[in-house]
Every structure is written in C-alpha cells, then in structure tokens.
Amino acid sequence: MSLNRQVVFQVTMPALLVALTLFGSSLLGIRSINHLQDDRDKIVSEHVRSLQAAEDLETHLRQIRFHSFIYIMDMTPKRWAKVEQDQTAFETVLADIRGRAATEEEKRVLHDIEAGYLRYSEELQQSRRFPIGPTTDEFLRWGDSHPIRHIVKPCEDLLDLNRRAMAETVEMSARQSDLARTRMILLGVIGAAGGLVGGFGMAWGMSRFITRLSVRLHDVHAHLDQEVASLRLTAEGGNLQGMERQLGTILERVREVVGQLQRQECESLRAEQLATVGQLAASIAHEVRNPLTSIKLLVGAALRGRCPKGLSDTDLQVIHDEVGRVERKVQALLDFARPLDAAHQPEDVAGLVRKVLDLVQERLRQQAVQLTLHFPPEPMAADLDRDQFEGVLVNLIFNALDAMPGGGQLGIGLDREPDGQLRLTVSDSGPGIDATVADRLFTPFVSTKPAGTGLGLSVSRRVVQAHGGSLTAANRPGGGACFTITIPAAGGGLSRADTPDC
Predict the structure, then answer these.
(1) Which burial class, exposed, middle or buried, applies to 485 when counting CB atoms under 10 A from its CB (0-12, 13-18, 19+)?
(2) Which regions of the chain are under pLDDT 50?
(3) Which residues pair with 348 in a beta bridge?
(4) Is 57 within 8 Å of 93 (Cβ atoms)?
(5) Are 276 and 174 within one domain?
(6) Which pLDDT belongs to residue 113?
(7) CA-closest candidate to residue 501, choices 392, 342, 385
(8) Tell me, what CATH number does 11's domain have?
(9) Residues linked to residue 426 through DSSP beta bridges, in sequence order
C-alpha cells in the first residue's frame, strides 16, 4: 500500500467511525421516536374508545329516561319493549367499559353506576306494579323524580374522567414530542461539534505524522548518506507525494543493502562450511586410517612372499570391504561439504511418505515393526525437492528401524500448524536418544551406531533448512524418540526467491 493510501486510510477511518456513530445514534433516535409514537397512538386510541363508550352510555341513558317516561304514561308491551331494548344496550356498553377499566377511580365510578342502575331497576319495577296517574301533575312529579336520577351523576363523572384522561394524554404526547425534538437537535449539535473536534484532531495527528515521518526519513538518510550522497530529503509543506518518492528511493537502497548482506551471509556461511570441512578432515583421517592399515598389512605380506599362494579369498574380501568402507566415508564427507542444488515444486507430503514406506515394507515385516499413520483426509502440499526430501525421510525411518531391531511401533503423523506450516513427525518405541549425544545429535560425525558415519542427521537438517523449515528431535514421554520436520506449506512461508541460495 502506498503512502497516500495509508494516509487516506488513517484520515477516512476516524471520519467513518464518527459518521457511523452519528448514523447509529440517529437510527436509535428515530426508533425511539417511532416507539413513543406507537405507544402514544395506542394510548390515544384506548382513551378515544373509552370516551366514545362513556358518551354512548349517556346516550342510552337519555333514551331509557325518555322511553320509560312514555311507558309510564302508556303501559303497553310495545312501549316496554323499547325500554328493555335501551336497557340491554346500556348494559352492553357498561360491560365493555368495565372490561377496559384500569384505574381505581374508573372502577369506583363504575361501581357507583352499577349501584345506581340497580336502584333504578327496583324503582322502575315498583312503578310498573303501582301505575302513576291519571292526572298530569302526578306524571310530572314522577318524571321529576325519575329513577334514572341514580345513574345520571355517576355517568357524568365517568365522562368527565375520560375527558380529563384524554387531555392528559394529549399533553403528555406534546411533552414527549418536544423532548424528542430537543434530543435530536442536541444530537445534531453534538455531531457538528464532534465533526469539528475530530477534523481538528485528524489534522493535528496528520501534522505530527508528517513531522515524525520527515524525521525518520532524515534519520535513515543519515545512516545511508555515506554511500548514497545523492539523496536529498525534503518534506516542507507536507508534500506527501514527494515524501513517498523519497521513501521509495530509500527503500530501494535498503533492498540493495539487504541483498549485499545476504550475499555476505552466504559467503560467510560457505566459509564456515569450508572451515568445518577442514576441522573434520582430522576426524575422517582416523576413520580412513584403520581400513588402509588393514589393506597395507595384507598387501605388504603378499609382497614380502609370506603368502606363497598369493592373497586368499578371505584376504581379498577383507580388502574389498575395507575399500568400500573408505569409499563410504569419503562420499559422506563430500555430500556434507558440497552445496545443495534443489529444484522445488509443489509435492503432496503424504504421497512422498507413502512412497518411501513402500521401499521399507519388507524390512518392517522382517523386524515385526507395526506401522501407524496419522494423515489428514485432504492433501497437504509443500514446495519440495522430491529426491532430497525422500532422502531425509529414508534416513529418519531407517534410524527408527535401527533403534527397534526386535520390533516395536513406528508412528508417522502429518498435520497443519495454526500458522499454516506443515508438521511431519517420525516416532519410534526404541530406547530413545542417548543423553550423552542429545545436545550434539545433529553435529557431523556424531553417531551411536558402530558402523555409522554420523553425517545422516546433519545432512538431513541442512536439507530441511534449505526448504525453509526445521528438524528437531526429542525423547517421547512414554519411551522412544520423535523427530519433527516443520516446513512451509505450498504458497506460504519463504519462497526460493526470498531465501539466498547458499
């Protein structure tokens, strides 16, 4: 990512966070307002229904009063039917109001209405049993003391109660609307202030960032100026594009310096390897001298005539074996000393292991060694040199078999590490790694085998390291040794372009 993109990212991310915060706050405010509006609509709707029911109750009350008065004047079944119809409608509305009553005041008023209605019914029935009249004055007196008087006042109280509740709801709705409007205005003011403060903070931060970057550029220039005297760093006016070009120039020079260091490291490593070969020459001389001494004694005896019939078949076999022993020692030394030329390409690690195991199946059977494989179902590939890696696997498996001459358990496992690398383990149930050589196990010419050269594990580690991995060894808690190879998976870790060819 270029410098400009980094700057844009650093500038836009805080602004985006502020914008998202304001947007989220606005959404919460809108949701809160909608929720308040819904609650208010429900409350208003409920009060409207209650008010309408109270008005209906008074309407039916007037109808009862009128039709009952007409019935007293003309007691016919037709007139009484209308009274009963009005009473049924009154009782239906009263039951509906009773079902919605929530406050204690409403319940008290309804109790008064029900008590008054009961007294009305009793007095009306009494008037039916003892008819009024026949004079007009008697009808007027009955009308003035109409039984419905017991219900009128409680019904008026109920209507007033619903009107007051309606007025309170409207007033509360207005207060909530004002409060929500105030909050939204406050949110807008806070957002504007936050934008100003955030912009000032980002400008201040960018100024400090440019200043620090300029100082670092000059610091890098001071370290490289001895060899790159042509570099001229300027950062006046916050010229980010100019600074990016200067940084690119410095990075290119850093790459050149790193390349030189890598080449020097390779040369140093090569020199160290040659020095090691020189130090090991004395060690290999002892290994070669013993076979040559045996050959010299046999050939010298034949030259001096002590063997009239010449060298026997036994003598020739001894000479042949000793020459082969010298040849193996010299070849192992050459293999250790020469550089590794590898051709890396993606290979299925599990497939390579199975191929090597096919070569040692007969020895597994002869030694009665039980093989246990733990491979994942999906293939795991790594960039490998097939021949070199097969040589490492053969060496580790043969070492494990040599540690179990009387049979045992050979385990090979492959899995993926959390960092994406592949981990291959080769374990055995033998006696484990000798404590006397544990810290020198990968040192050349260190071996616990009577006929071993001591170069197998050293060369194997070099091969694995050339693949960008590592080879380690440890004793298992339950007995036996375990060798672990860790290598980058195909497409991950260091590529051959990134690793100097030593």
Answers:
(1) buried
(2) 1-3, 228-230, 235-237, 492-502
(3) 381
(4) yes
(5) no
(6) 84
(7) 342
(8) 1.20.120.1730
(9) 412, 483
Residues 323 and 374 in one domain: no
Q: Which domain holds residue 99?
A: 3-195
Long-range contacts of 234-238 (CB under 8 A, 24+ apart): 235/210, 238/206, 238/207, 238/210
Same domain, 325 and 361: no
3 state SS of 267: helix
- List of E strands, 331-490: 345-348, 369-374, 381-384, 408-416, 422-428, 470-475, 481-487
Quick one: pLDDT at residue 410? Answer: 93
The pLDDT tens digits for 404-451 are 888 899 999 999 998 889 999 999 998 888 888 777 777 766 666 655
Q: What tokens appear for 241 in the block? A: 């594009």
Strands 408-416 and 369-374: parallel
- Give yes or no: residues 187 and 56 share one domain: yes
Contact between residue 423 and residue 416 where contact means Cβ atoms under 8 Å apart: yes
Mention every residue, 6+ apart, whose C-beta is less than 8 A from residue 98: 110
The pLDDT value given to residue 425: 95
CA–CA dist 247, 385 (Å, integer) = 38
Cα separation, 158 vs 116, in Å, equals: 13
Select from 155, 125, 131, 145 the least CA-distant residue to 61.
Answer: 155
Task: Take residue 461 and report the two structure tokens written for it.
Answer: 């580690």
Same domain, 346 and 392: yes
Question: What distance in Å separates the CA atoms of residue 99 and residue 3, rounded to the nearest whole number?
Answer: 73
Q: What is the pLDDT of residues 88-105, one digit of tens each?
A: 988 898 888 888 777 888
Domain identity same for 120 and 158: yes
The reply to whether omega before 134 is within 30° of 0 (cis) is yes
Give buried/exposed letters for 334-359 (b at 16+ CB in 10 A, else e): ebbeeeeebebeebebbebbeebbee
Full DSSP string of 113-174: HHHHHHHHHHHHHHHHHS---SSHHHHHHHHHT-TTHHHHHHHHHHHHHHHHHHHHHHHHHH
Please give the structure tokens belonging to residue 441: 């196990």
Global confidence as pTM = 0.39
